[in-house]
């Protein structure tokens, strides 16, 4: 059986072939857009198109570019090859109500991602991230001129020839860490969260800072706890809007909690017994937060965390109701 660390986190893994070599091939891109079998992932107001199933949801792809009123390669973003077909993301005008399959609808991906098949969730997340990047870089950051799409949607070039600035997709690295003293895990909650929700410590990496330094700083700033060992665990793309979560575990050298800022409303040490009893609600199972907690918990318990009858998870946001 594969080691837990060899299994990709949700929204990660080889869910498609990115085919970066095609991004500069205008002829192949045009041929793909004319192919009626080509898949399109529409994104409308940052929402993703899904269909309701008896159990969960399914990504709803659209075939045929004519549905979108354009034939220009500059209007689409090449994602790669998905299930044997080329696949593109396309942004729909926010003021226009999409008129696609009435049995499906546009929803916030954050609320339904865990109920999608893994590869479909990955493609929808990738499309969402690219569309958001495109929408936020329509103008040159150097001279302010409008930018134009190039290389399959993966470059934004300044339209001012005297400037010629190029912009590429960016991600925001963030560290997320489970701190333990061996028998207890350190979890905190934000004031805006519903009562009972707790999670691991997280924060963005700052310029000129290593990942290890960011872990130590975030833990110290948010909890007052000091750590003396940091180990990389795994990573997870998190396109809400454009983060890459870099997961770590850390050992506490000083366990006294002293909140040094207002980032967290409460911080506490929890034993496995307290977690199993449902004293706090844990993050959803498709998050890297849960995986960090789960791996620590299972390493010291005869009963896996997912089999503990009283362990609690965050309740998901209100999901869309199936069409009647």
TrEMBL record:
InterPro entries in alphabetical order: NAD-cap_RNA_hydrolase_NudC (IPR050241), NADH_PPase-like_N (IPR015375), NudC-like_C (IPR049734), Nudix_hydrolase (IPR020476), NUDIX_hydrolase-like_dom_sf (IPR015797), NUDIX_hydrolase_CS (IPR020084), NUDIX_hydrolase_dom (IPR000086), Znr_NADH_PPase (IPR015376)
Molecular function (Gene Ontology), one example: NADH pyrophosphatase activity
Statement: the UniProt record of this protein carries the keyword NAD: yes
One Pfam family recorded for the sequence: NUDIX
Domain annotation Nudix hydrolase: ranges: 169-294
UniProt entry tagged with the keyword Hydrolase: yes
Key words of the record: Hydrolase, Magnesium, Metal-binding, NAD
Reaction equation(s) it catalyzes: a 5'-end NAD(+)-phospho-ribonucleoside in mRNA + H2O = a 5'-end phospho-adenosine-phospho-ribonucleoside in mRNA + beta-nicotinamide D-ribonucleotide + 2 H(+)
Gene3D superfamilies: 3.90.79.20, Nucleoside Triphosphate Pyrophosphohydrolase (3.90.79.10)
GO cellular component: cytosol
NCBIfam families noted in UniProt: PRK00241.1
Family statement: Belongs to the Nudix hydrolase family. NudC subfamily.
Name assigned to this protein: NAD(+) diphosphatase
């Amino acid at each position: 059986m594969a080691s837990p660390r060899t299994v990709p986190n949700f929204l990660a893994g080889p869910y498609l072939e990115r085919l970066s070599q095609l991004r500069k091939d205008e002829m192949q891109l045009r041929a793909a857009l004319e192919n009626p079998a080509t898949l399109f992932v529409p994104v409308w107001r940052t929402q993703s198109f899904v269909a309701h199933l008896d159990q969960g949801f399914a990504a709803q792809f659209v075939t045929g570019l004519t549905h979108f009123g354009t034939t220009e390669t500059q209007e689409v973003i090449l994602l790669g090859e998905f299930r044997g077909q080329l696949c593109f993301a396309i942004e729909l005008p926010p003021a226009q109500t999409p008129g696609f399959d009435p049995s499906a609808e546009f929803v916030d991906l954050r609320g339904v991602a865990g109920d999608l098949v893994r590869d479909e969730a990955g493609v929808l997340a990738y499309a969402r991230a690219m569309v958001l990047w495109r929408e936020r870089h329509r103008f040159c950051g150097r001279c302010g001129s409008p930018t134009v799409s190039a290389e399959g949607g993966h470059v934004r070039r300044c339209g001012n020839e005297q400037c010629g600035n190029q912009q590429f997709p960016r991600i925001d690295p963030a560290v997320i860490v489970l701190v333990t003293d061996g028998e207890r895990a350190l979890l905190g909650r934000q004031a805006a969260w519903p009562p009972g929700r707790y999670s691991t410590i997280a924060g963005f990496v700052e310029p000129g800072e290593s990942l290890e330094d960011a872990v130590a700083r975030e833990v110290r700033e948010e909890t007052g706890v000091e750590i003396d060992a940091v180990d990389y665990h795994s990573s997870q793309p998190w396109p809400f809007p454009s983060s890459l979560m870099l997961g770590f575990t850390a050992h506490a050298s000083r366990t006294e909690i002293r909140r040094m800022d207002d980032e967290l409303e409460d911080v506490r040490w929890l034993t496995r017994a307290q977690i199993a009893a449902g004293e706090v609600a844990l993050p959803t199972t498709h998050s890297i937060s849960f995986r960090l907690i789960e791996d620590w918990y299972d390493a010291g318990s005869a009963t896996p965390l997912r089999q503990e009858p009283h362990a609690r998870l965050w309740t998901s946001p209100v999901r869309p109701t199936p069409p009647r």
